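Human:
Focus on the backbone:
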Amino acid sequence: MARGFDSKDVENQQSEASRPQHMRRELTPEERETQSKRRSLELALTRARAERDAATSRAHQQTLDQAIQALETRLRSGE
């Protein structure tokens, strides 16, 4: 489910990037901060998923599963 949202988000970012610069509105400081936090969460989630895929210890896998759940929850809630 989350990967579908990630794909849609990437698609939106690409379409936004292809718009001419003069058509984009300037983001407010709050919007920039929110966008930055979201990107940080997305990167942390990507890193945790990759680490989970490579983990061999069951305890480590469980810890990473919990971290992934927490990150997904934060992204859904808009933190």
The radius of gyration is 16 Å. The mean pLDDT is 85. DSSP finds three helices and no strands in the chain. The first helix runs from residue 2 to 18.
